[in-house]
Amino acid sequence: MTGTVIRVESAAAYDVVIGSGLAGRLQGLLGESVERVAFLYAAELAEYAEPVLEELLKHYDVLGLGLPSGEDQKTVAVANDCWEALGERGFTRSDAVVTFGGGATTDLGGWVAAGWLRGVRVVHVPTTVLAMVDAAVGGKTGVNTGAGKNLVGAFHEPAGVLCDLALLATLPEADLIAGLGEVVKCGFIADPEILRLVEESDKITASSPVLAELIERAIRVKAEVVAADLKETGGADSHPGRETLNYGHTLAHALEKHSGFSIRHGDAVAVGCVYAAELARLAGVLSDEVAARHAPTFAKVGLPTTVKELGVEAGFDDLIGAMRVDKKARGSVLRFLVLHDLAVPRILTGPTEEQLREAYAVVGG
């Protein structure tokens, strides 16, 4: 049960444990006062969830709740079903939630925990690269609505996160690659060593020795950003704070919504980062060299860099409406997280429509 421990030093500090065979660490994270645990898991992962469930059953009264697949679970209706089940079982404020699954499961399960009695403990056991480096860490929870992705939710930090790297062997290759979209993003916004490791590595698989280091580095990036700015109020000295983590996400979320959430988040983020880099170049704040580094680096791990590669048919006019309701927008003014250099993130406010369209021509494919 050994593993690397990364401490997230936020207001409610917690540990992210990275290693293999970590189920025995659950009791320590959940605490002694817990009697009942709601175990929310992606139903298709029931076989892999068994070791975690068996460990929980040794110590707690467990309510198992299987969830729909992927983004289909991130709805108000599914969350309400979970709350009704907690009520029927008599869950109190001292009880807890444990999630097992990808980013959609940690988002939904985190919101269920945040909403029940205005907040109960939650421990995440992410099963994908994407969930390990992004969704499970940082306390963002929520669901999708017709208006867009993740527009309804709450900040609710976990009591702990267990990243069992052995679970990555169960991932389809396409899902593992998609998760690397958020990893490469972290290289551009904060840790260029990630970019070097990617550029100098052969094909990255679940058994690649470099994968563990990439995941640890990406988690450290997120932990440091979140600790400094949990609720996106901004950083010091012009640093955008937590908004930094949204690099590439303005276009990515618009593409996801346009596709009916049928494309992988990490794939969309890769395209969104290439778009943001080109937009920054056109705005005169990012060098040609750094902008040009984006597409080859994402492509190196097998990620798409154009909308055509995503399999989405979307022109600029199909997406601009969704971008205008992005969480970074203020009123009618679009704001983009961009780079002024490697690991120098800034906010670009009110780019011209000509710049927006010209940048889209690069990724529209």
UniProtKB/TrEMBL annotation:
Q: Which domain of life is it from?
A: Bacteria
Q: What is its EC number?
A: 4.2.3.4
**Metabolic or biological pathway:** Metabolic intermediate biosynthesis; chorismate biosynthesis; chorismate from D-erythrose 4-phosphate and phosphoenolpyruvate: step 2/7
Q: What class of enzyme is it?
A: lyase
The 3-dehydroquinate synthase N-terminal domain is annotated at 67-176
Instruction: Provide GO CC annotations from the record.
Output: cytoplasm
Q: How is the cofactor bound?
A: Binds 1 divalent metal cation per subunit. Can use either Co(2+) or Zn(2+).
Would the keyword Membrane be found if you checked this record's keyword annotation?
no
Q: Which residues bind NAD(+)?
A: 69-74, 103-107, 127-128, 140, 149
Q: What is its main location?
A: cytoplasm
Record-stated family = Belongs to the sugar phosphate cyclases superfamily. Dehydroquinate synthase family.
Q: What is the purpose of this protein?
A: Catalyzes the conversion of 3-deoxy-D-arabino-heptulosonate 7-phosphate (DAHP) to dehydroquinate (DHQ).
Q: Name it.
A: 3-dehydroquinate synthase
